[in-house]
């Protein structure tokens, strides 16, 4: 016995509707997973207290941008500050390059302005009248008209100082543990010292981001969304 069926209606609209539905579902899954990944990565930066600039340095693009129908949508979540994101993800050791020590301001030092400088990385003023986060003990000392001394002698703090402070202010570098120093600020000759910074030859950054973990969770969520669709 031979059976023959004839379809009298046009299948094109039905197939188009199905293709559109599949394309929409695929893009929705990609958008949801990538948005979740972006939110988690930004949330990690925010929770670590690394600042809004580094938080917003995580960006996202979904393709195709035109939202035309496709069975191959894609999303890219990327960093505009890969060096810093990678550093806080891996927790590397940072060594002093041009000087013997890295300057780490205390809270008291930050309140006095140590930890920011008016110059950009490439020289010149920071755009918008802002200040760059960077601890330069020499610039700080110059701003206070303070002399930098170590063991009773003038000490190099990044550049030479040819004369003593006329204000009487001094920054005294005192030996500390592990080969480091503590910078003590005397605003007057008879004033009590104020610890403004620690000077260390190296510092180990704490790992505070988990980029790989966020990526794995986004991939799992995407797979579950596609399987459920």
What does this structure look like?
This protein is α+β, with helices and mostly antiparallel strands. It is 35% helix and 23% strand. It has 2 domains: 12-91 and 207-228; 93-204, no CATH class. It has helices at 12-47, 52-56, 82-90, 107-111, 137-144, 211-228; strands spanning 58-63, 74-79, 93-95, 102-105, 115-117, 132-134, 147-150, 153-154, 170-175, 181-186, 194-200, 202-204. The protein has a 6-stranded mixed beta sheet with strand order 4-11-10-9-7-8. Strand 9 and strand 10 (181-186) form a beta hairpin. Helix 1 (12-47) runs antiparallel to helix 6 (211-228).
Topology, pairings included?
Blueprint: H1 12-47, H2 52-56, E1 58-63, E2 74-79, H3 82-90, E3 93-95, E4 102-105, H4 107-111, E5 115-117, E6 132-134, H5 137-144, E7 147-150, E8 153-154, E9 170-175, E10 181-186, E11 194-200, E12 202-204, H6 211-228
Parallel strand pairs: 7-9
Antiparallel strand pairs: 1-2, 3-12, 4-11, 5-6, 7-8, 9-10, 10-11
Helix pairs in contact: 1-6
Name the descriptors.
two-stranded antiparallel ribbon; six-stranded mixed sheet; 6 helices; 229 residues; elongated
Kindly report the average pLDDT value. 83
With strands numbered from the N-terminus, the spatial order across the biggest sheet is: 4-11-10-9-7-8
Distance between the termini: 40 Å
Query: How many β-strand stretches?
Result: 12
Taken in chain order, the helices and strands follow as: HHEEHEEHEEHEEEEEEH
Enumerate how many helices there are, as a single number: 6
The assigned structural class equals alpha+beta
